[in-house]
């Protein structure tokens, strides 16, 4: 059991592997357990005294108390492997939405390997797969039983609960508060979109409860004149943050295509496009001494923020698409945000994906969230912007109206429209017509449908060869049957600016 640690909480005492007091239980874990202080208090009450070595160390004590049912008690982002020497049993688990990566493989002798990165397994395991979010495997080494510990009703039923804006605001503030636990310097990403802007604003308000002069460090990235910069500056001035902008050149980002695919372990077009500017930003953030950053990832999936949701034919289909997007977060947004930040030694936290918050928002009826023309719903306004209830819940002095009601810009568009045009052109230039004509022969699994996709796939194949590795990737594409084009760029969707 091997572990490389990025120390964020309990810096001096949280070295891994972690052991129980009698050393019978051994743990390696990646992530953060956000309710560890509450759990530590419960453990101390039962034992008389208890001081956690780190946030993850409570996993051991909860295992000793509840066995594999410990997953019902912890909340956070995590992937871990626990070994019980006395019982000779293994417990492997991943958080409900796959914020933290985890892979499992099998070698030619039938041995099971588990790792946070695909690159650790491809040389020894001809068979590899992504460990599913919300799943645990428990038992003897030769008989690990799979089970799903997270399956709320919104995953298989269309919810009927009306939105409560006050409850929604309180739930997100609570999520952000729990994600602020940190023993090192931290900051926040600030793209100028409503999601990251709200997280930065809420974090600032919470920190100023203790220190009225507090200034959150915020960061933006883009080409010169990028659409996101103006909105981010407006938010930074409004909340009084210490704001930095990273302006990148197209050539600098394009030079990193091979490196970013190596870190991402995916060939998905949207993910690669977004990650190249992002990895330049995280490199800069790390140079400032920051080791943890807050992000607005996850809001689009739970509120229906992508522009193609305007084409949803009805509320039931809208909700089912939300469920699909949430279940695939670990293959796209979570994968990108974790791997790009960790490549530079930074932990990225996502309050919108707090389990309790997701459960609340996904339990709100789709009639209250679906964007677009609402003539079919009596008493509703005629037209609704995406993520309306999120914006409305924070309409009271959290953000400037120009940002609060600003329409969605997907990150790869918002950093500068020239970025998409140039990366598509450069990638396409690497693939001949003859090569692309044989794409289905060379890549029968997830056959690339554009030259840009073909180029990324060919780089991935060099680093992670084999059909098994290729199957760990799922491409992010809008719903083609909802009239969406093949290109996943938000700019490609035929939705125009909608005002409050």
TrEMBL record:
Positions annotated to bind ATP:
189, 221, 295-296
**Assigned EC number:** 6.3.5.4
GO BP terms: L-asparagine biosynthetic process
Spell out the CDD domains in the cross-references. Asn_synthase_B_C, AsnB
Q: What class of enzyme is it?
A: ligase
- Pfam families named among the record's database cross-references: Asn_synthase (PF00733), GATase_7 (PF13537)
Catalyses: L-aspartate + L-glutamine + ATP + H2O = L-asparagine + L-glutamate + AMP + diphosphate + H(+)
Sorted alphabetically, the Gene Ontology cellular component annotations on this record are: cytosol
Q: One MF term from GO for this chain?
A: asparagine synthase (glutamine-hydrolyzing) activity
So where does L-glutamine get bound?
A: 55
Does this entry carry the keyword Lyase? Answer: no
Q: Which residues form the Glutamine amidotransferase type-2 domain?
A: 1-142
Q: Could you list the residue ranges that cross the membrane? A: none
Write out the pathway annotation from the protein's UniProt entry. Answer: Amino-acid biosynthesis; L-asparagine biosynthesis; L-asparagine from L-aspartate (L-Gln route): step 1/1
Query: Which keywords does the record carry?
Result: Amino-acid biosynthesis, Asparagine biosynthesis, ATP-binding, Glutamine amidotransferase, Ligase, Nucleotide-binding
**Mind telling me what this protein is named?**
Asparagine synthetase [glutamine-hydrolyzing]
What lineage does UniProt assign to this protein's organism? Eukaryota, Metazoa, Ecdysozoa, Arthropoda, Hexapoda
Which residues lie in coiled coils? none
Annotated positions for site Important for beta-aspartyl-AMP intermediate formation? 297
Task: Please name the source species.
Answer: Musca domestica (House fly)
